[in-house]
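Hi R.,

Here's the chain you asked about this morning:
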Amino acid sequence: MKNRWNTTEAEAAARESAVGLRVYSSRLLGAEADLVLHGGGNTSVKGSQVDVFGKQQRALFVKGSGWDLRTIQAAGFPPVKLDYLLQLGQLPSLTDSEMMRQLRLALLDPAAPTPSVEAILHALIPHPYVDHSHADAVVAISNTLDGEASLRNIYGEDVLILPYLMPGFILARQVAEATRDVDWSKLRGIILMHHGIFTFHADAKTSYDTMIELVSMAETYLQQAGGRKLATGTVELTDIDCLQLSRLRQAAASHFGAPVLLRADTSPAATGFAGLANSGELLMRGPLTPDHSIHTKPFGASFAADPLPGLEDFVTRYAHYFAEHSEPHHQRLDCMPRYGVWKDRGMLYLAGSLARLQIVQDIGDHTVRAIQWGEMLGGWDALPRQDLFDIEYWELEQAKLKQSTARAEFEGKVVVVSGAASGIGQACVRHFRQQGAAVVALDIAAGFTTANQDPGVLALHCDVTEAVALAAALRQAVQWCGGIDVLVSNAGNFPPSQKLEEIDDATWERSLSLNLSGHMKLLRAALPFLRHGFDPAVVFVASKNVPAPGRGAAAYSAAKAGLTQLARVAALELGAEGIRVNALHPNAVYDTGLWTDEVLAARAAHYGKTVNEYKTDNVLRTEVHAADVARAVALFAGTALAKTTGAQLPVDGGNERVI
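And the predicted structure, written out as tokens:
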């Protein structure tokens, strides 16, 4: 593992704040996904802080709950009374709920975040700097039949190896008892089986260096044992596969209780694992670390070519697991799997939001790799189900169930937007993302895909007039998030003004192809997936020119009128399947790439108006923005108008000719 320490950067960080060096080295750990994932791991530094009476208080600055080591800042290290923590560590017993209450009471700043659940353990280690990671290589070795012996062979007497116990007060007491007679000056680290590794020192760099060195020793051990030779494979999903994914997503949501996203990973590593004869059984043995079960459930699912039976098998297994290990006070969580192997195809991941989906996939990637390491070392041997249950149904996690958090309107839903690079399409992408949706953005603009920086947007270069290109794009979309719930058919252009006798065939055909036929082809390609969508809706972006055409715009007006008729017929045909279809008629939307300052000035001058007068030339005397149209699109796409289909809505500030 690479040592990322940079002396110049470290010195600069140390000058920034009292815990600047702690922030710096913590971020170095967080930068390594093989050490910590999504909030995993924790770090601390011991120091002092002056209280309101001017008295120096010994303090532990420990990672706060909710902070991620990748991005942590000084505010993420709440100061806690060190002596108070040491006293807590001497108690014979303490429930985790009471421990968390005591940690809040021990804060020197009541506005600070809640200290890590392992704060007492950090306090008990008699070194200023303490680093804790869930290093893949170390934990993977511990998750084997001879894991403890292998770790002792790697580290000898330099590292204390302890059996697994749940995080919290019990773990702190275990470490305290195990180290009662330890010479800390000779101890370089502590490994907790199935959990992770601690390093510590008076010097931040030394503690960090030790972490990198000890983890590298485990990686070398895996390398020498052949643990780097992982299975790989290749596969290309078919239209039938993608249809199966959309069905699985719909069925899985019924066990989750809300719309969900599904991702199919067909990377060489995922496909290679899926090709192993016992891949499904391996996933059912348990996760890389018990902490992961909070995100991924305690075991994975196994899916065949038709994945629906695999879903029901998981639901049955999970219900049995809960019944076997639960007590009357436990509230059962949903029965939807979070990940599973799709035989000979790859890995499948499910979650209720994009953020959760990425967490599950990242954990899955690391788990699949670690499982293969474990098999090469004699057999993957995760913790018993009861230990995993105790983490998944930990009282601290159960308490979170009582804290209801409202979901964004489109969270867990997938929205496809055509013509997404600018104007109304771009505004729709932004609006749906703000409302929690996963957005598939289609356009032919140069540089469109590379310009996108939002991980919640899948930007695809796609000509909507080409049926083959559309089919390929939607396959990518379904593989990315599992289906389609909302289709915003927006791509179009406005041809040069031509009177009827001047229209050339090419102009006419281009307008019909993009402004009418392209919408039909996109709808036709999306329909198989919309049928399995959540509250499925289609919104066509037509034009004011439908109810009120203008001279010289025959090619555009005729195409948009045809589009409106297409929307009406679609509403009639698809209503019985619960798919709503509506149309919008925007007008005078000037904040698009087409309307430059120069063009606006020229058009305003042509009508003898100022630019502002030209832009507000409507009944309401207001300017219409692309964002206004996007909000109207979302209104039709959401559930507020769930009983409306076949409707046409102007978004034009009021046009006298339309009225």
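The mean pLDDT is 95.

Let me know if you need anything else.
M.
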